[in-house]
Design a protein that fits this description.
Elements (H helix, E strand, L loop, with lengths): L2 E8 L11 H4 L5 E5 L7 H14 L2 E5 L17 H22 L3 E4 L3 H9 L1 H14 L4 E5 L3 H8 L3 E7 L23 H14 L1 E3 L5 E3 L4 E3 L7 H14 L3 E2 L6
Parallel strand pairs: 1-2, 1-9, 1-10, 2-3, 3-4, 4-5, 5-6, 6-9
Antiparallel strand pairs: 7-8
Helix pairs in contact: 2-3, 3-5, 4-5, 5-6, 7-8
């Protein structure tokens, strides 16, 4: 491995309310997963984020979720696979349209929050997301949590698929993210996160909360933009990976 992508979830404000420092994060990451109206964002927020990403040369992906502004997309809502297919298509299409106005293309799709977790485990949901992406634009890639059903579904659908791991999230022995309500779910110490990533990149084995490790593939590393320590985390991760000799570069061309 000679290069690695850093991505963050951005554009997660709504109206006059903002979350995180998108402008600063866009100076550190190489890919931005932009909220598109499901868990956060609105046309103005999308537009501002897309313009900033274009100016910084950051590749953009759509970040669709359950339509749950109040729950920030972190609750599973009752929705059939067909309904999921439609709301994913609607959200991705919305960001593509705003991106056209901003002069910056959407290159991939990465589900957010509860939708990502459900798609990681349930093939019907993963297939629905893959169908939506393919219908909107078969040239879009999918950024999926490593080793999940979404990764398999996107590949089966003939989509370009890439794997991600998380700098600031704990893993179980099954390769799943530790639920946010459980101990070890979040890593706030930037040095701990960076050290864990170096160990993982050297071995391909991600440490788990149970004490062992799980083998994962990686094309991109996510640092959550809503983490209070996001800037310090992203900066430290980038510094450590660069010192290791890796080029920080997008996993897909803009």
């Amino acid at each position: 491995m000679i290069s690695i992508d850093l991505n963050a979830d951005l554009g997660e404000g709504y109206g006059p309310w903002s979350m995180g420092d998108d402008a600063a994060m866009l100076g550190l990451v190489t890919s931005a997963n932009v909220a598109c109206g499901g868990h956060a964002s609105d046309p103005e927020t999308m537009f501002r984020t897309m313009v900033l990403a274009r100016e910084r040369g950051v590749v953009v992906g759509a970040h669709p979720s359950y339509p749950d502004l109040l729950g920030f997309g972190r609750r599973r809502l009752p929705a059939t696979p067909a309904e999921i297919e439609r709301f994913v298509a609607a959200q991705v299409g919305a960001l593509i349209a705003v991106g056209a106005l901003a002069g910056h293309p959407v290159r991939y799709v990465k589900p957010h929050g509860a939708l990502a977790n459900v798609a990681a485990a349930e093939r019907e949901v993963a297939d629905a997301i893959a169908r939506a992406v393919r219908a909107v634009d078969p040239a879009l890639a999918v950024l999926a949590i490593s080793g999940t059903e979404l990764q398999a579904a996107a590949s089966t659908a003939g989509l370009w698929v890439f794997s991600e791991v998380f700098a600031d999230r704990g893993y179980t022995a099954a390769g799943d993210l530790v639920p946010r309500s459980a101990p070890g779910a979040l890593i706030h110490d930037a040095d701990v996160a960076a050290g864990r990533l170096v160990s993982f990149l050297d071995s391909g084995e991600m440490p788990t909360v149970e004490g062992g490790s799980v083998r994962l593939a990686v094309d991109s590393i996510c640092v959550h933009g809503d983490n209070p320590a996001a800037m310090a985390m992203a900066g430290r991760v980038r510094e450590v990976l660069s010192k290791r000799g890796l080029t920080i570069a997008p996993f897909i061309a803009s």
